[in-house]
Write a structure and sequence with these properties.
Carbamate kinase, VC0802-like, 2 domains, globular, 8-stranded mixed sheet, homodimer, 6-stranded antiparallel sheet, 34% helix, alpha/beta, 27% strand
Chain lengths: 413, 413
């Protein structure tokens, strides 16, 4: 008997028929002899409807506290309806809001972080023979205010529940078959990965392979809980996200990811003094603008160029901020380009293959794609390119690295 | 400066425009120098939608616990949206779910009773300069399960909050101008009452003058909190529901009420032994069927007829139950008539006017209306008649008692 946490997103519970399907699936798992805990999102469309109401009544920036009170009703609806559907299959079940399982978070409304969970409440429900159904995405802070974890937060709720219960696996049901080597809509040769390490998944998720919320992967990694990303439409195996040592073969490149909504900002002719970076990035951070890649050119004549990327919808705000602060760092001028894509190759095997970077640049050069920025990590190399070359770059890199099937056997590490 | 609790029902918050209207109204009261606490229902239509979903997924009898989890989301939506609208008027405000103000109830899901409220939580919100907006209709039991008070429960929530805060008045905003002497749709001469006692209101409410939930009147009476029933569409005074000694003139009959959905059940030839009533009404009570009027004829030859009324939609169930139990009390047969109306006259002045009953029967006899059952209380006389005579009876009684304006000056009591 395993203890399995199953998470179903908004599409999987999008209407009464789908809720009944989920009920059948969780009851089947339970009848197969497992203990099952379910975590669900709001019905698809529900959250958008609530957000539209918030905009209508609360203006452009509705109170974050009240926003959370409002949108958390979406998951509360789903848990009650799913429990009712489970009851119709003659299985005991009980719903829990975030507050009711002591899903304690910080007070950062609309993007709160989980601090703790009262696992005893869930365990006693299991002991009573019930199938606990938990509202994802929501919790309460120390003062009892309702908080939400931000879009996609139900993944994080599910993994956090799995960690608190020391579950055998957290199954994330989704509308895709698992984690792919790249976007199959862009590259027909893309294939599903059977296993991938937490580290690779983190790089894939943060780079835009929207299958799993990044925080949920961090939780699972910290507690060593395997995640199984699988389809809610069929029974087939999906992708297991596991510890590095449980990945059988280390692909040099497991996946090619992209994000086509980046913008590039260049602050030119900055004085090359200590404190310049803080003077520029401090204001961006305080404005809540997330800076991704940062490059500083070599200094020439005591001045340098500072280049970085931000989400393309933050391009105008970032440009204005830099123009305000340019004088204070003696910059000559500020330039912005909202049409940037970031393309990355990710793979555990890369740690021992310095040549991957060279090969990547060669592939892109062959296609005539100019590289504007480069960043690297232990298991990832990313380049910023002109947005219109995204497909070309992704296909060429997928062909060169993934379809070639370059692997590094575990034994050699 | 007064402390005013204002309750707005589903129609008053039925869409974003109406929510903005409510926001303007409560902020205006606040700016007039009063402390204001607001209690709201779900947006009109919302609860029906949720109930339909519950039926679809939970069958004919969805889990009452989960039903409460589901429908309580309706009020939670409203409080967040109303607070957002109040914020747009530059007034501080904060929403509270039932759980968040410690609205403790018993565990009787879908019709829970309020046990206590944490008034300190509301007071500290007021002290912080906020306008507290509270979800009506909902609470939690001792185990933290979400409960609801049943349809119309927001009235009860509002009055309970007013009692807990020792408010100066609980204003119930509604789509009528106040409490009328009878249904104005039926009797054009019906007029609004300026003041009415709790006792009269209880009789009016329980007899079908659907303006105020009966439990809310009991609460207000117990704590001596005045209720002001008034229109949400204009500023005019409505009807004050107050202590008997605060009613200026005691009308012999304040109002004529009716309920046209009653059914009459007769159990004929019952043995006139002790325990017969228990043998018949025990099963009805256990089946949750509310029995209203009960008449037992004088015994003849050791047998008697037992006649009573039930809601007309319970007629079939009550009939079946009586047929099952008829033999055990030696009854000859059971008859049912689902087409019964109850018409009542209510008035504080009646206490000292035994002649009112005689006059009432005379008025009905003049119209050729046969009286099937009669019950009386200190301030009410009710008769059961054939349903098709309802209008005729109500109009005749209103003309005879209300339009004649018979009063009893307080001095004479």
């Amino acid at each position: 008997m395993s203890l399995i946490v199953q998470k179903f997103g908004g599409t999987s519970v999008g209407d009464p028929d789908r809720i009944r399907n989920v009920a059948r699936r969780v009851v089947a798992t339970r009848q197969a002899g497992h203990e099952v805990v379910v975590v669900v999102s709001a019905m698809s469309g529900e959250t958008n409807e609530l957000v539209a109401l918030a905009r209508e009544l609360g203006g452009t920036v509705p109170s974050p506290r009240e926003y959370d009170v409002l949108v958390s009703t979406g998951e509360q609806k789903t848990i009650a309806l799913l429990v009712m559907a489970i009851h119709q299959l003659d299985q005991e079940a009980r719903s829990f809001t975030g507050a009711q399982i002591g899903m304690r978070t910080d007070g950062d409304h609309t993007r709160a972080r989980i601090l703790s969970i009262d696992a005893d409440r869930i365990r006693s429900s299991l002991s009573a023979g019930e199938l606990p159904v938990i509202a994802g995405f929501q919790g309460t802070d120390d003062d009892g205010n309702i908080t939400t974890l931000g879009r996609g937060g139900t993944d994080t709720s599910a993994v956090a529940v799995a960690c608190a219960l020391d579950a055998d696996v957290c199954e994330i049901y989704t509308d895709v078959d698992g984690v792919f080597t790249t976007d199959p809509n862009m590259v027909p040769a893309a294939h599903k990965l059977n296993r991938i390490s937490y580290e690779e998944m983190l790089e894939m998720a943060s780079l835009g392979a929207k299958v799993l919320q990044i925080r949920s992967v961090k939780f699972a990694m910290a507690y060593g809980i395997p995640i199984h990303v699988r389809s809610s439409f069929h029974e087939g195996e999906g992708t297991w996200v596991v510890r590095e040592e449980d990945v059988m073969e280390r692909l040099v490149v497991s996946g090619v990811t992209y994000n086509r909504s980046e913008a590039k900002i260049c602050v030119l002719g900055v004085k090359d003094n200590p404190g310049v970076a803080a003077a520029l990035f401090g204001p961006l951070s305080r404005a809540g603008i997330v800076v991704d890649m940062i490059i500083q050119n070599l200094s020439q004549d005591g001045t340098t160029d500072m280049t970085f990327t931000v989400p393309s919808d933050e391009c105008d705000r970032a440009l204005r901020l830099m123009e305000e602060h340019a004088a204070s760092v003696g910059a000559e001028r500020v330039e912005g380009d909202p049409g940037i894509a970031k393309v990355s190759v990710v793979g555990l095997g890369m740690k021992d293959h310095a040549g991957v970077a060279a090969r990547m640049f060669e592939v892109l050069a062959t296609e005539g794609i100019n590289i504007q920025l480069i960043t690297t990590s232990e298991i990832k190399i990313s380049v910023a390119i002109e947005e219109k070359y995204t497909e070309l770059a992704v296909r060429a890199l997928h062909a060169a690295f993934v379809e070639s099937g370059a692997t590094e056997p575990v034994a050699e590490v």
